Every structure is written in C-alpha cells, then in structure tokens.
Automatic annotation (TrEMBL), chain A:
A divalent metal cation binds at residues 114, 118, 135, 295. HAMAP family: Kae1. Substrate binds at residues 135-139, 167, 182, 186, 267. This is N(6)-L-threonylcarbamoyladenine synthase. GO terms for cellular component: cytoplasm; EKC/KEOPS complex; nucleus. Its cofactor is a divalent metal cation. Binds 1 divalent metal cation per subunit. PROSITE patterns: GLYCOPROTEASE. Its main location: cytoplasm.
Automatic annotation (TrEMBL), chain B:
It is an enzyme of class 2 (transferase). SUPFAM superfamilies: Protein kinase-like (PK-like) (SSF56112). One of its GO terms (biological process) is tRNA threonylcarbamoyladenosine metabolic process. This is non-specific serine/threonine protein kinase. The keyword Transferase applies. PANTHER family: EKC_KEOPS COMPLEX SUBUNIT TP53RK, NON-SPECIFIC SERINE/THREONINE PROTEIN KINASE. It comes from Funneliformis caledonium.
Length: 331, 328
C-alpha cells in the first residue's frame, strides 16, 4: 500500500511517499522532499508568511516527490495530511491542497496528529519497541509513553517549548536561521569553553524554559561572554533538564528504552547526553537524523497509512485542521 | 563507600541502599554524579539537592508529618542516612491490592490521609516538588501515611508553588491510575478541611490547570464527566476547556465531552440530536471568550486594588504605568 503525506504545520513544507508491504511488514520510503521557509537572522517565521511560502512551493514539491518516487497516481492508496497541532494558516494552506488532490484523484483522505506522526516514524526507523518518547521540537516538549491504549504525556514544558527557547535565543544573538537556528547553536556550542550558570528549572517531570531566555538577555548585556560560551552553556543546561525529566519518566514507568523525536532531537549533543544517561541505567537510546527528526511528509504518510490500514478514514467534510489537538481524538 | 550496603533501587538520580547504621537498619540515599551533566552544573545541583532534602525532611518531621527520620547527612559523598520505613508504596496499593482497587471506602480513607499529610506539609511552607503515588507510603505498624523522597523539595510560601505541587500530584495520579478522579477530589477535600490557607491554593490550582500549554491536557485528563447529558457536568467542562476551545474550534463546530470513546469533535448536523439533551446554548467558542474575559477582568481588578497602581490596557494583558521592574 502506498500513501502520500502532506506536512506543513510550521515553517517546513514536506511531502513524503511511503510504501507498506502489508504481508512482510517492510516499510519502504519512496520520496521525502522538504522545503523550508528560512527567515533573515534576528527574525522568526510568521504564520502568514509561512502560509504564503507553503502555497508558493507546494505544487513543485509534490511534482518532485512524485518524480523521485516513480509512483503512478493510480497506485497511491491514501492521502494523508497534518490535521494539527501547528500554526493555523500554514496547516490550512497545505490541507487545502491535500483535499483538492483527494477529490481530483478520487482517493480517501486521512488527517494525522503531528505528534503521533513523529513518534510512529521514530519507532519505525529505529525499531524501538515500547520506549519512553522525548518529543522535542519548536512547538512541543513532552515526555510521552504508551499506556492503556493511548500515548500519555508524563511530563512537559510548563511554558515555552525547548525549540522555541533555542530559536529565540538565536534571535537574541542574531544567529543565522539557515538551515535552522538549532543547528547553528550546536555548531557554535562546539567552540564554547566557559560554563555560565543559567536557571535550572525542573518541577517533578515538568520543565520550564522561559526564565532562561530573560536571564540570557540580562547576562548578554551585563557580562562579557562570547556567543560561543552562551550557546554552550544554554545547550548544557536545557539538555540536562530534558535528560533529567526523561530519566525520571523512565524510573517512574520502569522502561529501559528512550526514543528522541522532533526537530531538536537531531542535535548530537542531546543524543550524546541521553546516551550517557541511558548507559548509567543500562538501557538503550534511539534517535534519528535530520531527515526524520525534523518535520517531514514521510512521518505523516506513515502514521496516516497505519491508521488507514486499521480502517480509519477522515470524511471529507471533517477534514479540518486544529491548532491544538485533543489527544483523545487522534485515532 | 557505604559499608555492608545492599542496593535496593536505582532511582532517577540516586541509588537507594539499605545498610546498618549504628544499631538500626537505615535507608541510604546516595546521589551519584551524572555523566551527561557539565561538572559545574552537576556539583551545584547535587549539593543543593542534598541540603534541601535534609532540611525539608527534618522540618516536616519536626512539625508532625510522618516522614522517615533523618539519621545522618554526609555532604562530602552526597549521601543521606534515614529511617527504613516498613510499609507499602501507595502506587503498588492502587495497582495490585484488590482491596484498594475495589473498595471505595478504603480508597477514600487513603485519600483522606493523603490530603491531611499534604495539608501539613504545605502548612509549614514546604513544597514537595515531586508528589507522585510512588512517593507516598503506608506504614505497616500503624497505617499512617508516610511522605518520602524530598529530593526535589524546597521552601516557599507562595500559593502558586503549592498549587503546582498539587497539580503535579493530580497529573501523576490520573496518568498512572486511570479512573481515579474521585479519589483525587477526595484528597483535595481533606486538604481543604485541614489547611487554613487552602482557599488561595485551590483557586490557584484552578488557574494552573487552565494555564499555558497544559490546557489541552485538561481535556485529556481531569474530571471530565462520565455522564454526557448532565448539564452540571457539562458546565464544569466548559469552564475547564474554555480557553482552549475558543482557539480550537471554529464556530460551527462543537465539542461533546463524554466518556473518552465518545469524545469527538462533531460537525453541527451530527450534534443536533445531542444538543437537546444539554441545557442551554453550548457554543464553546463564545463561552470560552466570555470566561476568559471575566477571569481577566477579575484578576486585573484584584491586582489594582492590591497595588493601587494605574494600569495600561494592552488588550491581552495590562501593564503598570511608569513602574520599573520590581526587585525581588
């Protein structure tokens, strides 16, 4: 079975085509095309401009995906799109295309929860069985585990997401947004030496990042510390917080596996710290690279196809978008 | 190194051993350093947490909360020696003990004990910081409730911190023990009765539940009504879900809260049947906005009275005029 997935919940526009062999269970990735809306240093991406970007690029990207995959339109079984959570305008502009194609090609359509997409893709790529999931991206920071037939959130951020914290930090320092602020922070951090103390806020299994940002703003103006040191200290602090809550969740649930998903998940320093933690606990860590960590169409196609195979279809009149997803209605 | 120690558990940040201490058996909690943490950060966190834990443990014990007695603190090795409590962990009770799973009277009794203990802890301005059912025990000898693991505790008199403390427990409770809403209500009830300043904390708790990105969580957990048709339950849900719903749904979509399996967003036409069963208009979007606004106004008014400062209205928040950032 073949599915095409449309993702555009934030500044990445992604189209992916995936094939599931229903007999052998083998998953085959046929195309994974992504186009990112990059803004100048010091600025973030706004919903309206991002939607314009998605509208401008989606047709060429879909064509490119079809070309790369060598799939005929008639072979596609289902069209999957991101239903939420995400920014409203970009979500809708991509959903409209998915819906139009569903009508044009006469295919069923499946709305996918973005978070579930990340988790299912991570599990598929890494073959992690029943891990504690650390989902870290620009919009989400959650520790999730599967229990009683649902993905349940055990810990999360109390205010902003970790990716949001990194992005805004990059804006304070005027770092480039190309390819992503997080990547540039990672590169700067490699050169950092001095550790500057930043607020470290862990409450139970929850974390808080907003204090760090305002603290950095004052430090930057008051003290003489290089951007490299700041990047280094920021990464050390926030990732230590994330690893700590993951470890708490592992201890709480009694699990030995960790899966890192989401855009921040491709940060090698985070993966390294997680590996060190897991080693002390005698467990295993699973992570993917930027192709699957950062928002992509493949994960939407994958999760949608899994749902479709169990008989789930989103009726056309209900193929809407939500900026905040109620986890209960996923599938 | 601890002499004659047997490791009983490796927690998230400490190893728990039992070891003989003078004439008794003691629990030895040894915080180990984390390889993944920067050494400076690691040292700072570990020292701070050992000190805080010992301090809070002692303070609680002194004011009558049943906690393990503190024997000895070894700051050099980040180790705390404390009493070995014989008993059962509440989490195990609720998961494996059939008496507690089925018998509501037993559950309520336990809930009451938890509520009273929490009231005492908060009375002396201690925030536990990691209230889960794994950190509560029942002493074997006299069935009194023991609060353990003060590893993330700190001292604060803010209702905010106490409310977050309760919220952490609520979340832990409902995520580990499905269908335990009633028990948590019982806990809050006992808490209210046994703690004089509980009113402020509980109203803060309602605020915390609605706050920030936790909103959607409230729709997932919380005391979502089991009966779909009862208006009172529905109202409760509106209150909780309002902030998110105003953003979540477009005007012609409505949400029905029922048992999880029925909890779906439905289009307007499909709702018509159900609508009759629910009293009054249930346009979630306008209810949400109204509720938000009422709350905002109330908050502003209260603040104004307190500080007697003029505020500039900025739409979603208000700022004091010409007031510099206050020093803490």
């Amino acid at each position: 079975m073949i599915a095409i997935g449309f993702e555009g919940s934030a500044n990445k526009l992604g189209i992916g085509i995936i094939e599931h062999n229903t007999e052998s269970g083998v998953v085959n990735i046929l195309a994974n095309i992504r186009h990112t809306h990059v803004t100048p240093p010091g600025t973030g991406f706004l919903p309206r401009d991002t939607a314009v970007h998605h509208r401008e690029h989606i047709v060429p990207v879909v064509k490119e995906a079809l070309k790369t995959s060598n799939v005929q339109i008639k072979d596609i079984d289902v069209i999957c799109y991101t239903k939420g959570p995400g920014m409203g305008a970009p979500l809708v502009s991509v959903a409209v295309v998915a819906r139009t194609l569903a009508l044009l090609w006469n295919k069923p359509i499946v709305g996918v929860n973005h978070c579930i997409g990340h988790i299912e893709m991570g599990r598929e790529i890494t073959k992690a069985d029943n891990p504690v999931v650390l989902y870290v991206s620009g919009g989400n920071t959650q520790v999730i585990a599967y229990s009683e037939h649902r993905y349940r959130i055990f810990g999360e951020t109390l205010d902003i997401a970790v990716g949001n914290c990194l992005d805004r930090f990059a804006r304070i320092l005027n770092l480039s947004n190309d390819p992503s602020p997080g990547y540039n922070i990672e590169q700067h951090a490699k050169k950092g030496k001095k550790f500057i103390e930043l607020p470290y806020t862990v409450k139970g299994m929850d974390v808080s990042f907003s204090g760090i940002l305002s603290n950095i703003e004052t430090i930057k103006n008051e003290q003489s510390c290089s951007p490299e040191d700041l990047c280094f200290s920021l990464q050390e602090t926030v990732f230590a917080m994330l690893v700590e809550i993951t470890e708490r969740a592992m201890a709480h649930i009694g699990s030995k596996e960790v899966l890192i998903v989401g855009g921040v998940g491709c940060n090698l320093r985070l993966q390294e710290m997680m590996a060190q933690m897991v080693e002390q606990r005698d467990g295993k860590v699973f992570a993917t690279d930027e192709r699957f960590c950062i928002d992509n169409g493949i994960m939407i196609a994958h999760a949608g196809l899994l749902a479709y195979r169990t008989g789930f279809i989103t009726p056309l009149e209900r193929s809407t978008c939500t900026q905040r997803y109620v986890m209960l209605i996923c599938f | 190194m601890i002499e004659n120690a047997t490791l009983i558990k490796q927690g998230a940040e400490a190893r728990i051993h039992t070891a003989p201490f003078l004439t008794r058996t003691a629990i030895v909690k040894e915080r180990f350093s984390k390889a993944y943490r920067h050494p400076i950060l690691d040292k700072k966190l570990t020292t701070r947490r050992v000190n805080q834990e010992a301090r809070c443990l002692f303070k609680c014990r002194k004011s009558g909360v049943d906690t393990p007695a503190l024997y000895f603190v070894d700051t050099e090795n980040s180790t705390i020696y404390m009493e070995f409590v014989r008993g059962t962990i509440v989490k195990d009770l609720l998961v494996t003990n059939s008496v507690y799973i089925q018998n509501k009277v037993k559950q309520d009794e336990l809930a009451k004990k938890i509520g009273i203990a929490l009231a005492k802890v908060h009375e002396i301005d201690i925030i536990h910081g990691d209230l889960t059912t794994s950190n509560l025990m029942l002493r074997e000898s006299n069935q009194s409730l023991v609060v353990i693991d003060f590893g993330l505790s700190y001292i604060s008199s803010l209702p905010e911190d106490k409310a977050v403390d309760l919220y952490v427990l609520e979340r832990a409770f409902l995520s580990t023990h499905p269908n335990s809403e009633e028990m948590f209500t019982e806990i809050l009830d006992a808490y209210r009765k046994n703690y004089n300043a509980s009113q402020g904390v509980l109203s803060k708790l309602a605020e915390v539940r609605l706050r920030g990105r936790k909103r959607s969580m409230n729709m997932q957990y919380g005391t979502q009504g089991k009966v779909i048709h009862r208006a009172s339950v529905f109202k409760l849900n509106i209150e909780r879900a309002s902030v998110s719903s105003s953003r979540l749904y477009t005007n012609n979509m409505k949400v029905i809260h029922g048992p999880p399996e029925y909890n779906q967003i439905l289009g307007k036409s499909e709702l018509e049947g159900n609508e009759k069963k629910i009293e009054g208009e249930c346009d979630m979007s306008s209810m949400g906005k109204k509720f938000e606004k009422e709350k905002r106004d109330k908050r502003r008014k209260k603040r104004k009275e307190q500080e007697n400062v003029e505020y500039v209205d900025r739409g979603y928040w208000s700022e004091p005029v010409g007031v510099e950032k206050r020093e803490r």
